[in-house]
Structure formats: C-alpha cells, structure tokens
Amino acid sequence: MNRNLMEPRTWSRHTWGTGLVSLVLIMSILAPPYSGISTAAAEEGEAAAAAPQVPAYFSSTNDPQKPSWPDATGAAAGVWAAPAGDGKADVPASLTIPDLYDRVAHNLFSINMVWVLVTGFMVMFMQAGFMFVETGLCRAKNASHTAAMNFLVYPLGCLAFWAYGFAIGWGNWWNGPVPPGWYASLGPGLSLLNSGIGLGAAVDAAGNATGAYAYGLLGTKGWFLNSSVNDVSIMALFFFMMVFMDTTATIPTGSMAERWAWKNFIIYGLWVAFPYCLYANWVWGGGWLAQAGINWGLGHGAVDFAGSGVVHAMGGAIALAGAIVVGPRIGKFSNDGKPQAIPGHNIPMVVLGTFILAFGWFGFNPGSTLAGTDLRISFVVVNTMLASITATLGAMLTLELKGFKHDPSMLCNGMLAGLVAITAPCAFVNPIGAAIIGLIAGVLVVLSIFFVERLGIDDVVGAVSVHGVNGLWGVISLGIFATGEYGAGWNGVLRDEYVKQYGSDGVRGLLYGDASQFFAQCLDAAVVATLGFVLAYIWFKLSNLITPIRVPAEIEVEGLDIPEVGAPGYPDFALHSVGRSISG
Amino acid sequence: MKKVEAIIKPFKLDEVKDALSRAGIEGLTVTEVKGFGRQKGHTELYRGAEYVVDFLPKVKLEIAVDDGKVGEVVDAIARTARTGRIGDGKIFVLPIEETVRIRTGESGVEAI
Known about the structure:
The complex is a heterodimer of chains A (584) and B (112).
Chain A: H1 13-30, H2 45-50, H3 97-137, H4 143-170, E1 196-203, E2 209-219, H5 232-250, H6 252-255, H7 262-271, H8 273-283, H9 292-296, H10 308-326, H11 347-364, H12 377-401, H13 408-422, H14 431-454, H15 463-481, H16 496-502, H17 515-546, H18 553-558, H19 561-565
Antiparallel strand pairs in A: 1-2
Helix pairs in contact in A: 1-3, 3-4, 3-5, 3-11, 4-5, 4-7, 4-8, 5-10, 7-17, 8-10, 8-17, 10-15, 10-17, 11-13, 12-13, 12-14, 13-14, 13-15, 14-15, 15-17
Chain B: E1 2-8, H1 13-22, E2 29-35, E3 42-46, E4 49-53, E5 56-65, H2 70-81, E6 89-95
Antiparallel strand pairs in B: 1-5, 1-6, 2-5, 3-4
Helix pairs in contact in B: 1-2
C-alpha cells in the first residue's frame, strides 16, 4: 500500500526487524551465551526477544537542542559504542544489545560516508576532465580563457551552492517520499533538512504543519550551512551534491567558448546554482516530480539515479540557450550559412580529458547510492562502463556509415554521450540494457552534432548534443529499460498489484511491464528541457544588459587570452593561422 | 654573388643538406613555411564542417653562392629534393648586391 504522504516520517518496523536479525547473527558469533536469542526460552534472552532495545536515534528525528544520535558534529572523534574507559570496551560479554546495535550502526554509517566522500572526490576531479576537453577543442589563442572559465566555475559555483543552492535544493529533503523501511544512509542527522515551500501543506493531528507538502517546490533550510544544519551527515551530502552541481555549471562553458565575455561568465557562475538546485529539489529533494508517483500514479515518479536530467540535460539546456544568445563565432558560418571548420588546437588534450571524465564517472554513478553498503554499486559500475564503450563504438560506426573518418574528438564525444545517457538508468537496468542505451547514445550524439550545426547554432564542443540530447535520452531510456529488479518503493511508491505480480515494486520500465514509468520520465524530460532553456534564455538576455555577454569583434579575432584574462596560454608560439584554411 | 632560394618538401631537408655539404656549401638558412603551387588542396571534414587543406608545410632554404657555383648548387638541390610526385617545390636564383660577415666586417665574395 502506498505510504501516506501526510504522515510524518518515522522509522518503520522493518528497520527494527532487520536490525534484530543482524544482531542475532553477530551475537551468535561473538557471545555464545546469547546464541539462543531467537527462541524465547533462554533466560537472558527473554528480555531481548520481547522488546529490542534499539538506540534512541533510530526512532526519532534529530533535534539539535537534544541530539539523540551519538556524535552529530563528529566532536567525539566518532567514538561511540562502548568508548574507552567505561569498562565495557572490547569485552564482548559485557556489551549490551543496544551497544552492539550501536556498533553495527556506526560501521554502517562510516562505510556509507567514506564511500560518498571518496566518490565525491572523483567527481570533483572531473572538472579537470571538462577543462581538458574544452580547451583542446578551442583554438590556441583562446586556451587560457577557456581553461580559466572551467577553473573558476568551481569556486563560483561552490560559493553559490553554499550560500543558497543547497538550501533550496535539499532544505526539505527529509520530507520527501521514501520507501517503507528506508533509513538515511549517511546518518539520521539528515532529518534536520526539514523545511521548505510547496503546495498542499501537510498537517499533523494537532493541526501543526509538519514541513511536508503534497507538491514540494523548494527547500528553505541550510543557507550558508548555518548552525541549524550542523551535522556530519549533512556535510557529506552537501559536498557530494555540490560537485554534481559543478558538473552542470561547467557544461555551458563548452558551447559558449571563444566568445563569452569574462565578466558575464562570472555572474553566470553565481546564478547557475539557481536553476540547478530548483530542479534538483523537484527530482531529488523530495519535490513534486519525485512525488508524481504518489500524486498521479506515474510509476515511481520521476526517477533519475545519478542525474542524466538533473545534471546533464539541465547543463545542455543552459548550454543551448547560451549558444543561441551569444551567437556563433566569427567565421563559423560563411555568408551563405555553410558551417566552416574551426579545428581544436590540441586533440591529445581532448582524449586525456575524456579519460579523466570516464574515470570520474565511476564516482558519479555508483556514488549516487549514497551508500557503500548498497551492493548494487557493482551493477552500476558495469552498466556505466558498458554504456560508455558501446557509445564510443556506436559513434564510430555512425561516422563510418556516413563516409567520415573516425575523428578522435567525435569518438570522445561518443563516449561522453554514453556516460551521460546511462547516468539516470545505471542502477535500474541490466548490462544488456546498458549496452543498448549506450549504443543509441553514440549514434544520437553524432547525428545531433551535425543537426545542431545545420540549425546555425555554434556549439564549440558539442555540449548540447552530448549533455542536452543524451541527458534527455538517458531520462527517457530509464522509462523503457528499467528492469524492476532494484529500487523497491522508490519515491514512496509501493503498489500492491506489482508486488503481487513481481514480488516487489522496483523501478520498472515500459519493456518490463510499467508504462506509467515511461510517462513519468517523459514528464521529467519535458520539464527539464523547458525549465532549463527558458530560465537560461531569460538569464542570458538579462545578464547581457548588466555586462555584455559577447566580446567585441577585434578581441574575438585576436584571441581572448590577453584581453579577457590577461594571461596568454602559449606566449612562446605564434598562434594565428594564416588565412581561412589551415595546413594539412 | 647569387642567392639560391629553394622551396622543398620538409622530409627532404636532411638529404638536400648532405648534398650541399658535398658540394662545398658551408652555410644555409632554413625556414618553415606553408604554401601551394599548381598542386591545389583537398577537402577534409571536421565535425561535419568542410574545410579546404590548401597550404601544405614546406621548408625554404636560402643559400648565398658564388656565381661560379650556382649551377652545381641548383643541380644538387633539384636532384636530391625530387620525388617525382606533385609538390616537390621550386628553386629561385636571385642576384645579391652586397654580403657582409658580421663578426669580421668582411664584405663581397669572401663573406659568403
């Protein structure tokens, strides 16, 4: 039965049951006197079998005034469960059931937190990958400026995310819909993310607002990570979500390279957290797109495991709006509209960047379980890898069939397209599905690059095609290929008919019996494409009134390195190609 | 005094230099240049957009030669730089009005 949205979130009996079973296993190994716990006849086992004494933090939210979870700020150096000096430490026979429970729980949260942090480090490093890909694809005279944009987007984006982005995205995360028996993998401290704005406020029996909404719109807690969210779990979530936002922020620098004025880019860097975090709230932060399953019967609501929509389609939509507003580079289209080649200055750099991104994606996708203890991560990794390689080969095949040479920059775009496309469905599909999704992505990206260029849009690196088009494909492909094996109760949707037919209600696509999920994904895709493009178009037009979005023509022809950022990329070399054509 | 200017294919440079050495030439200047002749270019595709590869990399040699040796030098270059395929290059002979060795101040034929 569907979980009633109006009830405040509580730990269900499933958690206690699971905990008890694991305790039984541990105690039967550690302490023989307890081995008979599951049968009520044992003398010392009687009390334990009657009522498991689980720690208080498993049954309540975490009030910062009276914290119930042992070490909310890490102040005790994480030492909980039988700290040294209390006479109990490391003597199994003297540990009580709650002590053991505590210890297991601590290890669980520790594994999950380390996992999220380390995968987050890998995602942060993807910034270097983006920088290499974009700089390699632009001309040498713009290398320093392009690299500088990709560099500075990290501090600017992080500042904005810290100031307001995290709050609007995740401020009401705790009140989003979840499966029965779910626990916060990073720790109960996440319960502090409990205030936001939405439509249809939920009230408890006494008539007080619980903080939950029928249609969540945005969060309102955690501005500048203030003291109201001072918890180790929240710090980990903040970090992980920030590096994802940074990925979106850096995508438009690719489509708008070689003519985007530096000052306008800076204010963009401070703005981009807004559309990203707003939409992220709707899909990941417990907002109305995630609730579309509970509210409208659309599958499990919008499902997006690691962000084909939230990160990539949003980035691609902003990139498209930006490329349209800033206009094509001088010399990109001849007078009769024919596209001219402007070759990148360093193809090895592009390939290196692609490898760095492909490596970082092994953090991006599996890290999104937010739990190293969720062993589905191995499926996620394999699906990610397979999609990336079939996409590369798909791109190569497309070039071959069109009679083109296997341009390495296009092969790289192919691999990235596959990675983008698998990002949403990676946990929910099987390896064959992943391979098919990747193959289609590789074909799509090549066709899209040609198509976008024919529309008269100058996308220097193919960002719109790699991230926009394939981000949308990723979101939709989930609605087709999700197998139902994983994600039982996702977004709080647990339908009896599916449990009866399949044994569980996992995230399931069209080909596996749930057409409503496909429609949820289509809704999700339509929203991100529209929201991202419209918000970005308005922003870029407005920002142009504050400071011009495009550099003057003389600067564009000379190269942006010295005029815009004051540092030439390659001062020792003469950089200007003679004439319109290039040497072979 | 004459200046011999030769535009040749880059990979032929070492062979031509050795031939000139055997011909008794002790100094030359080399520049990397781009160019084309009647060869014309060909069309390539970069990410879906056509571009014409007109200019091909070449190497330009400049050698100051005494009048009597011009024939030998031109012959040495032409012989070793030839591949028989299109784009082999050209040799020009120009008159030199004056030559000065900077280190010693010598001028005229002794400065070559």
